[in-house]
Sequence to fold (189 residues):
Amino acid sequence: MSWSKLKQQLEGFLSPALHGRVEYRAPGYRYLPDKSGICYISVDKKNILNMGDKTNTIRWYQTELEIKNDPDIQIPVSKDDIEAVRQAAKGPVPEDRLIVMARSRKSTEHAKELLAAQASLSKSNFIVVANKFLTTPIEESLESSDMVLNILALVDRRVGKKRILSMSEKMRLKHPIVQYFYELRRDTL
Fold:
């Protein structure tokens, strides 16, 4: 599918409140047909989804430790997580220490997921992911670990107010770029 047709379809799915604010752009290079162009998602004429842009306001993590130490990321710990740590400890461990250990374990898993998602984003071809978005159900795109699919689903008109408002807990565990688009969409409700 050509870029112009794909862009038209993606913009057709945009939430009415985001029309004119969110834009999909792909500068093409006429003399380099073998090179894939860079694709951007811009908000209010500013490139938001572009890892190489130093003026980007979205935080991109370099290490797991940066993610674990980020105060904006709050990892909820369930009773099942604490019980799993208790079973792994094989001995008496104070309850408050179990909570710390469970949170540390979950934050390490979360950090690895975020770094993997970032790495795949930097290597991904936006056009391939956008075509996948157009052919998969919106629920799958929302639940996916692919950040671009999450973003495309969050700005989609098929995701209603009730669903957006009920996703706030899940969004805390997502990458800051996904959180940015979630906040953008929630603010337009």
